[in-house]
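Kindly inspect this one:
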Amino acid sequence: MSGPKSKLIEDAEIEPGKVEVTRTVDSPPEKVWEALTDPEKVIGWFGALSSPLVVGQSTRLDFGDGDFFSLNTRLIQPPYRLQYEWRFLGIGPLDTITWETTPKNKSSLVKVTDTEPERTHEAARLLRQGWIDFTNRLVKYLRKGKPARYPWRHEFDACIELGRNRVGVWDTLFQPGAQTRWLPLGASDLKEGADLIIEDGLEPSAFRLREVLFIPPSQVRLEITHEDWLCPTQCSLLLSPRREDFLLSVNHNGWEAISSQEDYQKRERTRFSLLWISALQRARQLIG
């Protein structure tokens, strides 16, 4: 909750393919519309738009920590309805985001709907929590007119759809000799003591793998570290079948523990974001 004049309307059940969050906010639709579409205001609670929203044109919603959405606007009906499609990190499943604002006395009823047919129930539950957080920030921004964004996100996650070929996906990605075709490894195998390489001109560039655990046919767990880091980070690569395809996911966390310097934590997270985006794209090419 974000105050007496902001009410989160709970859904009785979560429908995986369509996540909805509805709020009553103490602002007229015109003010809500500005907060949803004006780049100078969107950055105050959501992220940085690379360009204004225009139907049929693409833009980028950037969070400044390696996370972003590639966004294409489909519908603009000020001040009541806005719709766009986006992919997280430019590679995730295609989601359709619809904002609907309805006048309610001197306030507004604001509903956001996030639609993606292949989404699992667990993914929908986590996504709904994310939208509750974002709409909390929208409400706070509208009420106070002050920045309400989080500085950066400590968790990193990414995923990519691998298509409809269900035969031999695990072996194609994780058998010896195949791993270097999509992972930037300094050795021939994904194993303890091998290095992940980031070629971006910054140092450090080689990161050591520890405690690599294969759990076929669905998961690899490992730690990634460097001698300059205070603690290793924890990473998992997860292969999940869905109704129509496979999803390859990366979860890489522990950034707040690698250093006492927050700028350094954020920098390393951003570098690995680019590494994992490229790796997932190569994995999809390898699967074909």
